[in-house]
Fold:
Amino acid sequence: MTDQALPSSHAGDGSPDAELGTFKTLEQFILERQDFFSHSTGAFSRLLRDIGLAAKIVNRDMRRAGLIDIYGSTGETNVQGEVQQKMDALAHREFVQALRRGGECCLIGSEEHAEAIPLSSVS
Structure:
């Protein structure tokens, strides 16, 4: 196999299949762009990676929503005074967990939590 994109019968017609083989992953894009900045430490790239990972996990869980019982409300109220939805609570937990594990983010705010959430003890 080669790294070249396979020919498509949809080439140039604007269909989603026309773009197969020409897309870049978020990680590829970040790594390529990081090289343009000599002062780059990689911290921002790692933060974007952590956000992307959380988004993928939430996307996976949303696709299985009926199987893992995340439809409907939690019975709680968020800081906006709205009834908190199970999907919102799940996304909140996944983002907090991914950002905490990644180590690049020290504090976040969320409408699902009344106070700022410290993610690391490093000052």
